[in-house]
Design brief:
heterodimer; A: 10-stranded mixed sheet; 5-stranded antiparallel sheet; B: about 170 residues; alpha+beta; 4-stranded antiparallel sheet; 3 helices
């Protein structure tokens, strides 16, 4: 890992850590101009922002460094022409192959505390660094694992599933209905998995865009069954923001919470003795932007 | 007597796995003349729908700008959205016997031979003929006309509200 990519990785984790702490109303989104395209000359342009109203960039741009693309064959592809403005970023993806592309950000981070030589130690950073920096079998080890995923999907020609295989980390959408094949007023089915296992009894919220011209948010809330599957019908055509969150155990908020230490461990401003985490916990969030097509 | 003959014909068709009917599908599509500042001739897909489950049973014609130098017209095929979702995206363009140039306003008389293309394999039964139009900087409309494949029938027609005029279908 070069110094630069390392910095970017730290920055990405920083953003990921900061997101759940920001006001809940701040919603991150990757908004493609089209989700269905035809022909081998296809490109799609995508806006990326963190906003209150959907889908108006009114708060902060989403950084593009952490944006990844998976092509229809499941291989990594790239974003092009990225630029970041005051309120939003934009970039393009060239759809060189037929099938479904996944455009996303994903982070897996860990907060931990343990005892070493009678002293409380703290760690906060990526799951990879956690494995490297926190001694295996550390005494009094407590961890809070956080996974955040934010996605959108674009299909050129015929939809495909190659880009949509779950990684087994955090909360993920497994398509039953291809996410670019959702049609207004027609039932569709998604499945959710947490660390690769069915996410049962999970509340999934669909919020339509165009909030500025509606008096009420018009959100649709549904719950997954024992198999993690949820059947839903979106009433109107348009773009929807999809969100689901799982929290269990400690959240790391409050005393001894994430205010302690900076990314990668101690090094933050001195603020009294280092406090251990109160216990283990997990938080995982899944966000996506999908289109309900006009019938 | 006549009835039993047609029943026999059907039985024969079922055994052969394809209808022996050599009837043609006559379709008239009226492209309306629109008084708009920027007019482009519509892209049109003419396809057959199974009324029971709304799936596509075949594509008869697609009128688009295949000669476009930049994208060969394929970029806008998706705008005939119902056809694209149910049939078009499975196909390769240009498609032999299906691709055609866009057409000017006025009645367009078409004859689809029962011995060719999608009709050749179409089993006798009830279907909708769907004419779906999408116009650049204009609207989108699909008009459905039911028809019975397997025996000659009276013409049936339906009328569009904006992007399409009358559509008339008859099996002859």
């Amino acid at each position: 890992m070069t110094f630069k990519t390392r910095l970017l990785a730290v920055a990405a984790v920083g953003v990921a850590l900061a997101l759940p702490l920001a006001a809940e109303a701040h919603r991150g989104w990757l908004l493609p101009a089209f989700t269905t395209l035809s022909g081998d000359g296809s490109w799609v342009t995508v806006d990326a922002a963190i906003s209150n109203e959907l889908f108006y960039p009114d708060h902060r741009p989403m950084r593009t460094e952490g944006v990844q693309v998976l092509g229809p064959d499941g291989a990594a592809d790239k974003i092009q022409n990225a630029s970041t403005g005051q309120y939003r970023s934009t970039f393009d993806v060239q759809l060189t192959k037929p099938g479904t592309y996944k455009i996303f950000t994903a982070s897996n981070s860990v907060m931990a505390s343990w005892t070493e030589n009678g002293e409380v130690k703290r760690f906060r950073g990526s799951a990879e660094d956690f494995a490297k920096q926190v001694p295996a079998g550390a005494a009094d080890l407590k961890t809070i694992r956080m996974a955040n995923r934010n996605e959108t999907f674009v299909t050129r020609d015929k939809p495909s599933a190659g880009a949509l295989a779950p990684t087994g980390k955090g909360l993920e959408l497994v398509p039953v209905t291809n996410p670019t094949d959702v049609v207004a007023a027609e039932p569709a089915t998604f499945k959710f998995v947490l660390d690769g296992k069915p996410a049962a009894d999970l509340e999934v919220t669909f919020i339509p865009g165009g909030a500025r011209w509606r008096a009420s948010p018009g959100e649709v809330k549904v719950k997954t069954g024992a198999d993690g599957a949820v059947k839903f019908t979106l009433p109107e055509a348009g773009m929807y923001w999809v969100n689901a969150t799982v929290r269990s155990g400690e959240t790391g908020r409050g005393p001894g919470g994430p205010g302690m230490g900076g990314p990668g461990g101690p090094g933050g401003a001195p603020q009294g003795p280092v406090q251990p985490l109160a216990g283990n916990g997990q938080s995982a969030s899944y966000t996506a932007v999908i289109e309900a097509q006009r019938p | 007597m006549k009835r039993s003959i047609s029943l026999l014909t059907f039985a024969g068709a079922a055994v052969a796995g394809a209808p022996a009917l050599a009837a043609d599908l006559n379709v008239t599509v009226e492209i309306p003349k629109l008084t708009v500042a920027e007019y482009h001739k519509p892209y049109v897909a003419i396809w057959i729908e199974n009324p029971a489950d709304s799936t596509a049973a075949g594509t008869l014609a697609v009128w688009y700008d295949a000669g476009n130098k930049e994208d060969h017209g394929a970029k806008w095929l998706k705008d005939m959205r119902q056809w694209w979702r149910k049939a078009g995206r499975e196909m390769t363009f240009p498609a032999d016997g299906i691709s055609g140039a866009t057409r000017a306003p006025g009645p367009q008389k078409l004859v689809f031979a029962g011995s060719k293309g999608a009709l050749k394999a179409l089993k006798p039964g009830q279907y909708n003929l769907v004419v779906e139009a999408a116009r650049e900087v204009g609207g989108h409309e699909a008009v459905r006309v039911p028809f019975s494949w397997g025996k000659p029938g009276k013409p049936a027609s339906a009328k569009g509200a904006a992007e399409l005029g009358a559509v008339t279908v008859s099996v002859k």
